Amino acid sequence: MTTAPLPSSLRATLPGDHYTDPEIFRREQERLFETVWMCAVRAADLEHPGAFRTVQVGRESVVVVRDRTGRLRAFLNICRHRGARLCGEESGRLRRALQCPYHAWTYDLDGTLIAAPNLGKMPDIDRVAYGLVSVHLREWLGYAWVCLAEQPPSFEETVIGAAVERLGDAAAVERYHTEDLALGRRHRYDVRANWKLLVENFMECYHCATIHPELTDVLPEFADGYAAQYYVGHGAAFGADIKGFTVDGGEGFAPLPGLAAEQDRRYYAITVKPTVFVNLVPDHVILHRMFPLAADRTLVECDWLYAPEVVAGGQDVSASVELFHRVNVQDFDACERTQPSMASRAYRDGGVLVPSEHHIQHFHRWVLDHLAAADA
Ligand code: FES
Ligand code: FE
């Protein structure tokens, strides 16, 4: 089989095996997901001391817990004694401490080893050294971000920098005060596709006219296929007759306080590589967190966040949730349609990036650079 060389105006995507090969996925886990900042948990989900949530980060299970001083902490979800998984549940609330279900080693919520059967006979054991293995944690936009690297990359440059790169200024995203918003709805999607297909799909709007009828009604410039998020720093404007970012273009809620005039009636999207999408509209924020579980499987948690009074007042958020839920389903269906073909000989040398998608090549470069870095 031969493939014709691409004209110079076009570029090739990654070869098909980068979406299917378990060994390449394992390298991504090791050299990418375990070295960069990953968005793990919404901080307000862990309201009370002892509240915890476990997430998959690369090859590791990480438990994020609120300690008794109110601070969020992250640890590898592994007992130091013989390695039993500490928290088997995805979420819950610990009473006072983390107790291993195997031989009952018990850890304070700050990770220190505080008790173990017969530990009195081992007075020399260092309770901090044999405490839980802690994981770096930062909070931003109301989420706990974790990093497994011993020396994490700069949070300001690699995470907040994504917002600066997209919007020109971190203040533009801070004005939404996402950390103060309330959760109106959460949808989880178990997508049978490689995580990079989801990122590539989010980065382009070439598909918008074909698969997103509701979204292109609200944001007519998306129908041109040029992802406004990458070509127009000001974001995508609502159509003239559109009242709100809702499934039928009907009225939304009052704009969030503090937004700049140019942020009204516009949609902005930010990709925080590798696994977060932030969508900003005047009256709510939609935040996607992805958890790549296998070469061909990605779990996505999508939160719809509103002004606290909207949620506390029991206002009906379904018209705005329905818009992006449909977009999500349309996008993830497209990714699942593509995934099986990645193993075909037709895709052995990859596919094509048309001119409006050349920025996706930067994403590919970024992935490849990470995969190569540890070889250097
Ligand atoms: Fe946890 Fe033994 S493995 S106490
Ligand atoms: Fe889409």
Descriptive account of the structure:
Helices cover 25% and strands 26% of the residues. By secondary structure, it is of the alpha+beta class. The chain folds into two domains: 240 residues, Naphthalene 1,2-dioxygenase Alpha Subunit, Chain A, domain 1 (Alpha-Beta Complex), CATH 3.90.380; 116 residues, Rieske Iron-sulfur Protein. A seven-stranded antiparallel beta sheet has the order 2-11-10-5-4-3-6, with no helix packed on it. α4 packs across α9. It starts with 10 loop residues before the first strand and ends with a helix. The site of FE2/S2 (inorganic) cluster (FES) has 10 residues, from loops.
**What proportion strand?**
25-35%
Strand numbers in spatial order across the main sheet: 2-11-10-5-4-3-6
CATH topology of the largest domain: Naphthalene 1,2-dioxygenase Alpha Subunit, Chain A, domain 1
What name goes with the CATH superfamily of the largest domain? Naphthalene 1,2-dioxygenase Alpha Subunit, Chain A, domain 1
What is the number of strand segments? Answer: 18
The mean pLDDT is: 92
SS class: alpha+beta
What does the overall shape look like? globular
Number of helices: 10
- Supply the CATH class of the largest domain: Alpha Beta
Bound molecules: FE2/S2 (inorganic) cluster, fe (iii) ion
Pfam family, one: Rieske
Keywords: 2Fe-2S, Iron, Iron-sulfur, Metal-binding, Oxidoreductase
GO molecular function, one term: oxidoreductase activity, acting on paired donors, with incorporation or reduction of molecular oxygen
Protein name: (2Fe-2S) ferredoxin
